[in-house]
Q: What sequence folds into this?
């Protein structure tokens, strides 16, 4: 062990302290308008600072959607750097929703940008895709792990049009006969199991993205199976605006429920700067009741 606290341990502590709500930071142009902010880099920065102020101390996890900062070019990235720093300084675990994927050496470079301690874009975890093969994320998985960072690999995403690809059945490889979503999920579970031999911990540091709107069984994921050990972190967008509700959490995720991070963006952000703190507090209570 190199003395860093694994992401999975920090996530488990965030669950214990604040429950499983994750506030999505998605400064859509229409929301900036509601918040009285211009659609500019300054606007997304001010919007983000207020969201962080409302989230800090109430919730444990923040998920900035990087696309809404990238819209504003270099100045948008400068705003995001400031927000990542402020959020982490305020004690929030930050998952950068960047969805990067490429050949292994290029994904590793994305990992250096977002997960290197001290880098200007440092987050606690990032979203990635393995559609160029599970081997393409091996290198970034090792460096994330060494830095105590986390990864969330797209498996069964919330958008309905993803089903055709994610439910497709593999023809070759040791996972022939599995759906794409299942092969990715089992690859991630296997990675956590191998790490657990060395590191222990109740929750792994590598997770998957399962949309809260998805019937996971149709994607080949058995939600009645024995829960994985260590537990599997599941980043679950789709609550709120996309239609899933806290009461769906156990129903949808079954034996994966204990690792679920329930992510909501527009449904909270739409409350505006005056209402967001109350909206967050209400949702925390509802998720708490749903998970028991
Ligand atoms: O499967 C996925 C993966 C990521 N997302 C992202 O989450 C938020 C959802 O926003 P809402 O306003 O709560 O609908 C957004 O950043 C997506 O890019 C997802 O929706 N589904």
A:
């Amino acid at each position: 062990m190199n003395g860093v606290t694994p992401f999975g341990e920090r996530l488990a502590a965030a669950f214990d302290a604040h429950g499983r709500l994750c506030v999505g930071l998605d400064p859509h142009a229409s929301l900036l308008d509601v918040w009285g902010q211009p659609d500019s880099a300054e606007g997304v920065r001010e919007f983000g600072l207020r969201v962080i102020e409302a989230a800090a101390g109430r919730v444990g996890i923040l998920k900035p959607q990087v696309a809404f900062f990238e819209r504003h070019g270099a100045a948008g990235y400068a705003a995001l750097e400031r927000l990542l720093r402020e959020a982490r300084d305020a004690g929030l675990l930050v998952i950068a929703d960047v969805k990067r994927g490429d050949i292994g050496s290029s994904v590793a470079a994305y990992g250096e940008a977002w997960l290197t301690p001290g880098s200007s874009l440092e987050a606690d975890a990032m979203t990635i895709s393995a559609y160029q093969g599970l081997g393409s994320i091996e290198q970034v998985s090792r460096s994330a792990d060494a830095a105590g960072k986390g990864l969330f690999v797209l498996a069964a995403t919330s958008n309905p049009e993803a089903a055709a690809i994610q439910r497709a059945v593999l023809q070759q490889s040791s996972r022939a006969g599995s759906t794409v979503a299942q092969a990715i999920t089992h690859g991630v579970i296997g990675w956590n199991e191998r790490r657990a031999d060395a590191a222990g911990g109740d929750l792994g540091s590598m997770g998957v993205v399962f949309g809260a709107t998805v019937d996971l069984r149709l994607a080949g994921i058995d939600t009645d199976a024995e829960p994985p050990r260590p537990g599997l972190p599941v980043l679950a967008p789709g609550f709120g605006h996309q239609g899933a509700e806290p009461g769906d959490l156990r129903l949808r995720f079954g034996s994966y429920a204990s690792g679920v991070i329930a992510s909501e963006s527009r449904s909270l952000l739409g409350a505006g700067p005056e209402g967001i703190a109350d909206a967050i507090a209400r949702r925390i209570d509802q998720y708490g009741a749903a998970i028991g």
Observations:
- The chain has one domain: 7-291.
